[in-house]
Amino acid sequence: ELFQKVRSILNKLTPQMFNQLMKQVMDLTIDTEERLKGVVDLVFEKAIDEPSFSMVYGNMCSCLAMLKVPMADKPTSTVGFQKLLLNRCQKEFEKDKVNDDVLEKLRHQLEAATSASERERLEEDLEEAKDKAHRRSIGNIKFIGELFKLHMLSEAIMHDCVVKLFMNHSEESLERLCHLLTAIGKDLDLEKARPKMDHYFKYIEKTVKERRGSSRIRFLLQDVIDLRLNNWVLRRADHGPKTIEQIHKEAKLEEQEEQRKVHQQLLSKYKKTSPRTINKRMDTFANVC
Q1: Which pTM does this prediction carry?
Q2: Mean of the per-residue pLDDT values of the chain
Q3: What is the pLDDT of residues 230-283, one digit of tens each?
Q4: Of 97, 117, 159, 175, which shows the fewest CB atoms inside 10 Å?
Q5: How far apart are CA 203 and CA 213, in angstroms?
Q6: How many whole angstroms separate alpha carbon 219 and alpha carbon 233?
Q7: Contact status, residue 183 vs residue 225, Cβ threshold 8 Å
Q8: Which molecular-function annotation in GO is an example for this chain (predicted)?
Q9: Rounded distance between C-alpha atoms, residue 264 and residue 121, angstroms
């Protein structure tokens, strides 16, 4: 019953409904380690499945960070929401390496396949596994970035993540690195950490210059280089998910813009029409009436 209520709240969670729904979460009975772990898993899975809403889920986790319950095997001690959540993020982050190994194994099986039907099946399995692993890893990276910006993760942990992504050397890891630095680079690139950041970017620039990896990855890396040169100001700011009011306002502005374009087209067409033709059309219109 508890998990059903949490799922229902998560499905409705938006910036507009945040305060109202958080009150409902606070009223839930989350008083055992089993219940707390279940809630953490539900929030985490939703957060990495919907990375465009990672800011909202991050804020939710920030509100629940101090929630603690007695440990199942040690009732005199407690375990908190924040610790369970960060353990979940770490587990998923380390799982990325396991995913890389699984994908590599499927590639070898595909190369060794002898029949057309087996090859087709393995190709489908490989594509499905790649898509799933990619979605989860990018979602997790974006969520980790939001947690760091909310001071739920330390700078030391983030630098550790960056280094591990560098050391993996795979294109998937480099893509995750680009997403992470785009999200938190501004918060890491402070005076005390400048030498580390300079070291990271020397490697990134070298990777681009030596044309390692696919052109897509090189473009992503170049975007991060340009972002740092632009003082971490995105060309187009990402303000997270939009409220209903923002969507309606933008729709109205788009409608007004379309009307303006139509008006300009008609005006332009009118200016190109001779007075004689206009008078003739007016006479025709009058006769029809």
Answers
A1: 0.75
A2: 85
A3: 999 987 655 555 554 554 455 556 555 555 655 565 555 555 555 566 555 556
A4: 117
A5: 13
A6: 18
A7: no
A8: mRNA binding
A9: 56
The HSE-up count of residue 99 (CA atoms within 13 Å, CB side) is 23
For 97, other C-beta atoms within 10 Å of its C-beta total 14
Q: How far is CA 33 from the centre of its chain?
A: 29
**Residue 104: both structure tokens together:** 């590599």
pLDDT score at 240: 55
pLDDT-based confidence at residue 129 (cuts at 50, 70, 90):
confident
Contact 68, 78 (CB under 8 A): yes
Span 77-124, pLDDT tens digits:
999 999 999 999 999 998 766 666 777 788 888 888 888 888 888 888
Amino acid at 220: L
* Structure tokens that stand for 27 in this block: 């009223």
Checking if the pLDDT of 286 tops 60, the result is no
Q: CB atoms < 10 A from the CB of 155, how many?
A: 15
**DSSP string of the chain, one letter each residue:** -HHHHHHHHHHH--TTTHHHHHHHHHTS---SHHHHHHHHHHHHHHHHH-GGGHHHHHHHHHHHTT-EEE-SS-TTSEEEHHHHHHHHHHHHHHHHHHHHHHHHHHHHHHHH--SHHHHHHHHHHHHHHHHHHHHHHHHHHHHHHHHHHTTSS-HHHHHHHHHHHHHH-SHHHHHHHHHHHHHHHHHH-SGGGHHHHHHHHHHHHHHHHTT-S-HHHHHHHHHHHHHHHTTT--SS----SPPHHHHHHHHHHHHHHHHHHHHHHHHHHHHHS-HHHHHHHHHHHHHH-
Q: Kindly list the distances between the CA atom of residue 87 and the CA atoms of 71, 81, 114, 225, 233, in Å, as whole numbers in the listed order.
A: 15, 10, 42, 31, 31
Distance CA 122, CA 128 (A): 10
Any idea which residue has 């890396």 for tokens?
221
